[in-house]
Every structure is written in C-alpha cells, then in structure tokens.
Amino acid sequence: MILEPSIDKLQTKIVSKYTLVTLAAKRARQIQDTKIHNVENPKAATFVGLALEEILEEKLIIDPDYVMPKE
C-alpha cells in the first residue's frame, strides 16, 4: 500500500511532520462531521486522505502568525 500524496510532497507544503499530522487529523474530523471537502477530483477514499489532498493542493494552510495560547 502506497500513501498518496507522499510525505515528501506534503512536506514541501508543511515542513513539520507533527504539524502535518495534527492538521490532517483535525481537518479529517471536520470532513467526517460535515461531509464537505475542498478537493475537486479526490483520489482518497478516507477522510484523512481528503485532508492530505487539501494540504497538497494548498486549500488548507497554517497561518504562520497563529500562536497557541498558553495555559
């Protein structure tokens, strides 16, 4: 089984693997709840795959100015 899109391609969009996984997981939950995604011709059959395709197509990005609140 080959993961598509590949981690190498995804890391050209988001360098940190931790950030990539966290963002994809959160977005996958949103897609699962709403059944709405931003990929025109998806290849993925899973919600995580759809989230990764959104990241690759730059339809889902991270705001570099966003800072996590301190507790």
UniProtKB/TrEMBL annotation:
A Pfam family recorded for this sequence: RNA_pol_Rpb6
Query: What does UniProt give as the signal peptide span?
Result: none
Per its UniProt entry, which superkingdom is the organism in? Bacteria
- Describe the reaction catalysed, as an equation: RNA(n) + a ribonucleoside 5'-triphosphate = RNA(n+1) + diphosphate
Q: Which InterPro entries match?
A: DNA-dir_RNA_pol_omega, Pol_omega/Rpo6/RPB6, RPB6/omega-like_sf
The UniProt keywords, alphabetically, are: DNA-directed RNA polymerase, Nucleotidyltransferase, Transcription, Transferase
Q: What is the recorded function of this protein according to its Swiss-Prot or TrEMBL entry?
A: Promotes RNA polymerase assembly. Latches the N- and C-terminal regions of the beta' subunit thereby facilitating its interaction with the beta and alpha subunits.
Task: State the similarity comment.
Answer: Belongs to the RNA polymerase subunit omega family.
Q: Could you tell me which NCBIfam families the record lists for this protein? A: rpoZ
Task: Summarize subunit and interaction data from the UniProt record for this chain.
Answer: The RNAP catalytic core consists of 2 alpha, 1 beta, 1 beta' and 1 omega subunit. When a sigma factor is associated with the core the holoenzyme is formed, which can initiate transcription.
For this entry, the protein name equals: DNA-directed RNA polymerase subunit omega
Gene giving rise to this polypeptide: rpoZ
